[in-house]
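Table 4 source record.
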Amino acid sequence: MVKPTPPSSVEIGAALIAEVQQAGRFLRIPDPNDAKRARYRWAFDAARQCAPEGYHLKYSGRAKGDFFLGLLRITGEDDTEWNRIRLARSRVITDVEDVIAVVVADHSAFEISDEALVCSRSCDSLPSRPSPDTGRSRCPRSAGR
């Protein structure tokens, strides 16, 4: 039995460039797992050599959140759009524990009840009270109690 030959890095890079072009030169991969994120970073390294003339490839989202790839014109015409995407990505927190940590650390931008802050620190210390709207626990950590 003949084993199939794995694709070369040039083929992988060209395929990623095609995927980004098909997406309209800005590709978003929603919150990939660590393995998928690593594969995209590896493909990005291969794709940098395959960018069409007059373009370069950039990415954002190395460690967490959504992963973005941008095929930008080297003239700088796309820099504003890329910065908008990159900065918006850095303001989005997808992990519930990270959201709670940010709010507990500095909740000055929000009106948060003392009960909610206590709950964010230790939901186990509060009785589970159902929401009048849904009938379910108000605290996501105490679901099922």
